[in-house]
């Protein structure tokens, strides 16, 4: 009986205990789930920040950064303490196991950290009442490790309105007298990518000069003071890794002993590039006079001594050791035998020896030491040729230097213990041309490629080559935000949302939409041709400027259209600049104004130069004016760069911005053609469609008839009226038919107004209808269309006693089958289609066609997803199971046609997947189209300079009338941008003509 009473008593105690614990958990959860206001600064008070002196140094650094941020907003700086002498509202920040107050709250059940405990770089934020004696309310920041704590602390800086770019782009915080935040319990996930960071490469032209001559003159280099600021930025952006600057202009990172300690204080992991094995900088650390030749086959002992020295020096610090070996100055490794098998064998020996050094000096199993292998350039060939790589080493794949990832892990490689990563460029020095000045990598392209990498399990190391940091600010943040939480970027539209959120944070909500659209249009134009590529020159060897591929006399004049597109950007940028609050104008200048104006003026410099040369050949007086405009664009770049360096923030950024990296021809002031004409003023005419001007002294001049106007596309064409000679001259244009419309019909040309572009269009309601037919006329030459379909007239241009007659032909038939037709139609012998504007799409068994917004020539491309879908190569299986895009189009001619497809020039992710699609017209068997390129071929060079791969296949259009173009998926991930069906009428142009859609 006594036993039963004791048992009941014990059970009762257990029940009470469980009820009490349950009630306690309920209270904690209720507290965690409700938002609470927390006052940081009020009129009469300010918080203290309580940390434990035993915690990591980075916790103290981050706490002091937060305190300074609070001061910048309110003028009051919180005290950072590590003692019990606290009261009132307090921020308590610490790492689990390294902060006695945090640990006590965990033990007492005040906070529950089970979600983040043992996690990688995780943090938890919450408000707790009476957390420690003397404190009424505390904002608790707890990290799973030292970086998790630092990220949590700096997350508060973001929440109170301090940008990560507060120092690096002078995003001055908005002043407030009081400061509070409303916060619920917030638990971060582990980062999507384990090691995330940047590579300070090609630093010669900005960062090194700025540090040496301005910010850190006592070192005369990028030293510990500069790196401390870089590391602070990385912490604010939740990054954890850096590949330090490595050019010969900069002393090696480890030549300054303090650098490694600063990195450790900021909890930043040091790695090195593909050309810097074992954290060594071969460019400047290898001394030929005392060390001999940098060849492992003949001088391995000396090379191993260098590796050993660095391993000893870095044994106690967080590092990622690059294994393998390349030659000096980013060149191939020198070996005695020109034999791939021998090279592979030697590289395997190098890696084996490196791992032995790591094991000996760090005194750990090499499998537990972070290591990377970067299959870049010839090393990729060695890897593909069978190189045996230890499974625990991380494979770091690379892009082709222009934003297109060369290769990713195949299914077997995706299971490797060491995983995989990506080294990606938004700045590059090398063939076929550098882009070191502005940030011209399309952010949506970067999203697409890095999302693909993540999908193929490259999740361990992401490194962005961002050159000098400035002006790559936005792409750096986007890259690192994706690496932090890829789930926020599931769709292409996520990038634009991210941009708008970023713009709102840095400037104002009022102008956010305008600025976002401005940036996306700047990205679109740069995608069509990067600013640095506008001279049509190349490097290594450096070539002079070449002839532009942009046409000035077809399809509305591509050169003028691009000038005008950039002028709209300039006008919008200057207008928005006026609306930016005064304390954010310097930030706007750095993040938007200078990059947009710089890109615009570099474009206009060359575009006006091309117009100068073109119009000079026609004897136009306006050629001189175009030369002046080109020079003015050059001078504007000089002016803005000078302002950036010398005036902005009182010279804070002096030497950071160089407008002519490597002094390449594209950055120079171009040579101009000059027109000297002493004759009396006369007019000249130049028509769309002709390279030469109208020569009215020649009877039946072939350049005196405009291209045929097509009712179904509502064509418009231009006529340039220009002045030759000295003085002024009046002109007048008189149409000979009432259906011919002119944008202007008269004017005066003088020294102020040297030329005028007249737009000619047709009032189709007044044009006589052609015969009612079911079929179209034969023949590819629209000048030879049968009379029953074409109406001819003319425009007389008169000046003084001269009359120049320009022919006008209007194609205005009436076809029954086009009465209610909606779709694409032939115009002047071609059909032009934007890939996103399909008539129908049919899903496949495993994949679907999906839109990607924000990239391509039209800001939209279409691709087959998921990228892991099985490729289909059998033509019959393609017709049955592959997703297909269908485009209805109508032709007025028939015969053999070239179907030209423009795709984004991506690479196959691995062997077994290609870069192919298939096309057919009507019910023909699909024909394969392959966009893949090999190595650094001439085709690849053309593709990356143009951001486009154009392939052509022949198809038969068996009759005039309606047809359907079909594009089938063969390999997933191929991105189609535009399509041109050429029946023999397409003229030379850089981009495909605008869409020929029935109006």
From TrEMBL:
Keywords: Hydrolase. GO terms for molecular function: hydrolase activity. This is Glycosyl hydrolase family 115. The keyword Hydrolase applies. InterPro entries: GH115, GH115_C, GH115_sf, Hex-like_dom2. PANTHER family: GYLCOSYL HYDROLASE 115 C-TERMINAL DOMAIN-CONTAINING PROTEIN, PTHR37842. Residues 823-995 form the Gylcosyl hydrolase 115 C-terminal domain. Gene3D superfamilies: 1.20.58.2150, 2.60.120.1620, Chitobiase/beta-hexosaminidase domain 2-like (3.30.379.10), Glycosyl hydrolase family 115 (3.20.20.520). The lineage of its organism: Bacteria, Pseudomonadati, Bacteroidota, Flavobacteriia, Flavobacteriales. It comes from Maribacter litoralis. The keyword ATP-binding does not apply. GO terms for biological process: carbohydrate metabolic process.
């Amino acid at each position: 009986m006594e036993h039963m009473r004791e048992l009941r008593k014990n059970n009762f105690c257990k029940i009470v205990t469980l009820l009490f614990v349950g009630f306690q958990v309920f209270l904690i959860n209720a507290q965690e789930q409700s938002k609470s206001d927390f006052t940081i600064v009020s009129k009469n008070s300010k918080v203290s920040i309580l940390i434990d002196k035993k915690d990591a140094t980075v916790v103290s650094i981050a706490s002091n950064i937060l305190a300074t941020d609070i001061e910048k907003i309110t003028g009051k700086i919180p005290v950072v303490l590590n003692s019990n002498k606290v009261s009132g509202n307090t921020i308590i920040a610490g790492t689990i196991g390294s902060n006695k107050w945090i640990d006590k709250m965990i033990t007492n059940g005040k906070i529950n950290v089970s979600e983040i405990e043992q996690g990688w770089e995780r943090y938890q934020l919450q408000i707790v009442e009476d957390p420690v004696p003397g404190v009424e309310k505390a904002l608790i920041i707890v990290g799973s490790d030292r970086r998790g704590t630092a990220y949590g602390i700096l997350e508060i800086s973001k929440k109170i309105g301090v940008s990560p770019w507060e120092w690096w782009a002078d995003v001055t915080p908005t002043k407030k007298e009081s400061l509070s935040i409303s916060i619920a319990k917030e638990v971060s996930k582990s980062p999507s990518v384990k090691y995330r960071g940047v590579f300070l490469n090609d630093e010669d032209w900005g960062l090194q000069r700025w540090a040496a001559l301005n910010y850190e003159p006592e070192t005369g280099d990028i030293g510990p003071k500069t790196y401390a600021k870089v590391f602070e930025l990385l912490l604010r952006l939740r990054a954890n890794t850096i590949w330090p600057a490595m050019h010969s202009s900069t002393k090696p990172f480890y030549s300054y002993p303090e650098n490694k300690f600063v990195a450790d204080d900021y909890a930043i992991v040091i790695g090195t590039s593909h050309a810097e094995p074992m954290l060594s900088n071969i460019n400047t650390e290898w001394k030929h006079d005392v060390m001999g030749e940098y060849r492992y086959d003949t001088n391995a002992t000396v090379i191993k001594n260098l590796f050993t020295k660095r391993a000893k020096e870095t044994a106690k610090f967080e590092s990622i050791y690059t294994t393998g070996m390349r030659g000096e100055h980013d060149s191939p490794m020198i070996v005695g035998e020109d034999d791939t098998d021998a090279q592979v064998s030697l590289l395997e020996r190098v890696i084996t020896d490196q791992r032995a050094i790591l094991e000996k000096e760090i005194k750990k199993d090499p499998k537990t030491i972070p290591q990377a292998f970067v299959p870049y350039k010839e090393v990729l060939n060695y890897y593909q040729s069978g190189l045996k790589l230890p499974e625990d080493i991380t494979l770091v794949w690379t892009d082709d230097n222009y934003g297109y990832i060369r290769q990713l892990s195949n299914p077997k490689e995706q299971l490797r213990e060491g995983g995989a990563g990506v080294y990606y460029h938004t700045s590059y020095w090398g063939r076929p041309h550098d882009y070191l000045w502005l940030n011209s990598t399309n952010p949506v392209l970067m999203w697409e490629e890095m999302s693909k990498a993540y999908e193929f399990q490259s999740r361990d190391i992401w490194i962005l080559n961002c050159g000098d940091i400035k002006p790559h600010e936005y792409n750096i943040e986007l890259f690192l935000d994706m690496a932090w939480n890829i789930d926020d970027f599931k769709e292409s539209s996520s990038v634009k949302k991210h941009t708008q959120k970023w713009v709102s944070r840095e400037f104002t909500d009022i102008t956010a939409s305008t600025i976002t659209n401005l940036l996306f249009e700047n990205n679109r134009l740069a995608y069509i041709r990067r600013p640095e590529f506008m001279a049509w020159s190349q490097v290594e060897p450096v070539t002079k400027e070449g002839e532009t591929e942009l046409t000035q006399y077809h399809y509305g004049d591509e050169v003028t259209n691009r000038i005008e597109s950039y002028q709209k950007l300039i006008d919008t940028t200057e207008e928005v600049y006026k609306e930016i609050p005064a304390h954010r104008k310097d930030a706007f200048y750095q993040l938007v104004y200078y990059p947009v104006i710089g890109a615009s003026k570099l474009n206009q410099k060359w575009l006006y130069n091309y117009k100068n040369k073109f119009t000079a050949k026609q004897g136009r007086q306006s050629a001189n004016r175009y030369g002046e405009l080109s020079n003015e664009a050059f001078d504007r770049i000089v002016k803005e760069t000078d302002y950036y360096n010398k005036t902005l923030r009182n010279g804070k950024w002096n030497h950071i911005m160089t407008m002519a990296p490597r002094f390449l021809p594209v950055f120079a002031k171009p040579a101009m053609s000059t027109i000297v004409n002493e004759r009396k003023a006369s007019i000249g005419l130049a028509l769309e469609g002709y390279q030469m001007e109208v020569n009215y002294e020649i009877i039946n001049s072939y350049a005196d008839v405009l291209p045929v106007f097509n009712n179904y596309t509502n064509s418009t064409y231009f006529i340039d009226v220009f002045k030759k000679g000295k003085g002024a001259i009046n002109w007048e244009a008189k149409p000979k038919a009432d259906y011919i419309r002119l944008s202007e019909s008269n004017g005066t040309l003088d020294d102020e107004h040297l030329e005028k572009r007249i737009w000619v269009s047709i009032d189709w309601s007044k044009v006589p209808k052609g015969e009612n037919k079911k079929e179209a006329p034969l023949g590819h030459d629209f000048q030879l269309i049968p009379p029953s379909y074409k109406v001819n007239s003319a425009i007389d241009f008169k000046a003084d006693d001269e009359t120049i007659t320009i022919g006008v032909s209007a194609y205005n038939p009436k076809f029954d089958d086009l009465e209610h037709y909606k779709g694409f139609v032939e115009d002047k012998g071609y059909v032009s289609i934007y890939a996103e504007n399909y008539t129908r799409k049919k899903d496949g068994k495993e994949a679907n066609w999906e839109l990607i917004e924000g990239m391509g020539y039209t800001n939209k491309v279409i691709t087959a997803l998921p990228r892991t879908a099985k490729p289909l190569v059998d033509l019959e299986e393609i017709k049955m199971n592959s997703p297909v895009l269908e485009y209805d189009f109508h032709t007025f001619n028939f015969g053999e046609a070239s179907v030209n497809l423009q795709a984004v020039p991506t690479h196959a992710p691995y062997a077994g997947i290609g870069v192919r699609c298939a096309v057919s017209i009507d019910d023909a068997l699909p024909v394969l189209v392959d966009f893949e390129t090999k190595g650094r071929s001439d085709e690849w060079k053309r593709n990356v300079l143009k951001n486009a791969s154009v392939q052509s296949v022949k198809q038969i259009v068996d009759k005039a009338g309606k047809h359907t173009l079909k594009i089938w998926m063969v390999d997933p991930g191929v991105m189609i941008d535009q399509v041109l069906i050429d029946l023999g009428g397409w003229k030379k142009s850089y981009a495909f003509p605008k869409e020929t859609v029935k109006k």
